[in-house]
Amino acid sequence: MQAKKRYFILLSAGSCLALLFYFGGLQLRASRRSRREEHSSGGRNGLHHHPGPDRFWPRFPDALRPFVPGDQLENEDSVAPVSPRQKRDANSSIYKGKKCRMESCFDFALCKKNGFKVYVYPQQKGEKIAESYQNILAAIEGSRFYTSDPSQACLFVLSLDTLDRDQLSPQYVHNLRSKVQSLHLWNNGRNHLIFNLYSGTWPDYTEDVGFDIGQAMLAKASISTENFRPNFDVSIPLFSKDHPRTGGERGFLKFNTIPPLRKYMLVFKGKRYLTGIGSDTRNALYHVHNGEDVLLLTTCKHGKDWQKHKDSRCDRDNTEYEKYDYREMLHNATFCLVPRGRRLGSFRFLEALQAACVPVMLSNGWELPFSEVINWNQAAVIGDERLLLQIPSTIRSIHQDKILALRQQTQFLWEAYFSSVEKIVLTTLEIIQDRIFKHISRNSLIWNKHPGGLFVLPQYSSYLGDFPYYYANLGLKPPSKFTAVIHAVTPLVSQSQPVLKLLMAAAKSQYCAQIIVLWNCDKPLPAKHRWPATTVPVIVIEGESKVMSSRFLPYDNIVTDAVLSLDEDTVLSTTEVDFAFTVWQSFPERIVGYPARSHFWDNSKERWGYTSKWTNDYSMVLTGAAIYHKYYHYLYTHYLPASLKNMVDQLANCEDILMNFLVSAVTKLPPIKVTQKKQYKETMMGQTSRASRWADPDHFAQRQSCMNTFASWFGYMPLIHSQMRLDPVLFKDQVSILRKKYRDIERL
Predict the structure, then answer these.
(1) 163-185 burial, b if ≥16 CB within 10 A, otherwise e?
(2) 456: closest CA among 284, 619, 632, 285?
(3) d(Cα 71, Cα 178) in Å, to the nearest integer?
(4) What share of the chain is helix, strand, coil (3-state, %, to 5)?
(5) Closest by Cα among 252, 394, 261, 384 to 327
(6) What is the mean pLDDT of residues 458-481?
(7) pTM of the predicted structure, to 2 decimals
(8) Is pLDDT larger for residue 255 or for residue 74?
(9) Are 531 and 538 in contact (CB under 8 A)?
(10) pLDDT digits (tens, 9 = 90+) for 699-716
């Protein structure tokens, strides 16, 4: 019996070996024949195949197929069925380009010749674009980075709407893959930036944007740290369709209350998801809600089928939810919970920032917006979804000093980077520019301290001490000397002209380093002997194109940080110059000077008005007699759009108003007026060069128009009223004149 079994096993094994050799031999012969055919065919076509590593390996009929996109797989008959997940992964840019970094997927050579320029593809006929994406494109086209010439571009942005890639959304753009691939500049996405707010759809809400982005960068909301490509992608905040395009509202923190605690310690009001992703965290919030100073309100009353899935808590939660007004909670809370929703990001994030309500993040794995440059530990509390029950005790342990610092930082970040679509877009572009030009990139201090990265241009200087905002941080004293820049527009015909008296008064100042006369007159430059002899250098330069904006060009001749800007017909004494400069040394980031003006809102005309009347407040100090930091020359020239500067040059007017708009927008502070001098206006009206301009009603009407044009571009009114005037100590006090340092000012 045992012998029969052995014979049977041997016979079976022999049969299997025979079959194996038979079929294997057929396959080997077929593969050799096919290789001979390929070789002979290649020889006939003039092609020579070099032996590769796979030459010595057998070719199996059903070997693993190379990766191809899912839509190509569907067109082949021999392929096995592909699951929806495999299709999604195949089409997802996240899986294909996950290893992309600036060094491997970005062509730096495109940026070397023309700098950082951004090209937006022209809009295709019939393509729908959501308002939010139109705002993004408008922000790029209105920026100093924009170019209409693709050959000069360093970065490319699609005109195809990629913001909403949820297939259930009415804003979803179909066939985006084929449309993108047909673009002749696409180049597999290299040097392209794609904006996205929503990706994936019910039920799992993956981060798949639904088309192959190749080597393009993503500026994406709700992106996870797992899929975020460091120093390549940019995490942006989730913002609503109503988010303002430019300007935006200021933060709600009007003054610092001490102690900084509000009525509620922690609040949240939002949807509760009964099933699906994102439901766990919000479903557990009721454990922390105490109905007193911790209000975490949720409702399951949303969606079409909410009643089918409602649980035993729904009715009670809905009743509690309706009792409280969300705005009232937001404005009266110290901390605001920001839990994840269906996606990692939430609208509650920006709402909390604006309301000066310290965000408590409860969204594990979310790459926070602009995390590459913003230190969120200075403005938010980063929680853990798994430790929800510890959140109340954690925030109660935060010291009041820390709460105040967190709250102040929320206001800075909101106004610097998040209050408008334009700021979100510009912050994204500036981050990418810093990656490209690392040798002049901004450091963490610039990004996380007022005035922020958008107003501190690293092309000006790589040294923080060259900017007027960081003297205290660096332990530096403000500059001890200034350069007087006199704007001359009338010919020099007499030695008694006001411009020569002004020049002498400025030259006698103990703080004056040099004087520059900007000759914007149509007549030729006067001979050197026509200018008076002074103890400081006098440099006369011709204005570029003889336009008004040329007075604010960043001339290399200006060697000091402080600039005393003067109109040729200004009347100032040396004492006044000295006093104004000593005041400026205490406020180096602001405009300090003498002639003040104000703005107001005209309800009857529904527009901004301009007034030179003497009132109890002011919002502008004209640059006809003012001191400011020379960095504002660079900012005026390189930050402001050409349209505003061209308007100033065409009108030969409003350059001083535009400079005040710019400085107030940067500092969020008013200028500073020094000792009042009635003779300033009256004397100017008596001079020949300015009399016609100041008396001309058209001149005043132009300034009214300028105010509204400038406010429109900034998106809001940056000018701030002030009632502060700085006078010398003992100014007009009934004491001996010999006890007063600036005694000559009282005689003017």
Answers:
(1) bbbbeeeebbbeebeebbeebee
(2) 632
(3) 11
(4) 40, 15, 45
(5) 252
(6) 94
(7) 0.83
(8) 255
(9) yes
(10) 888 999 999 999 999 999
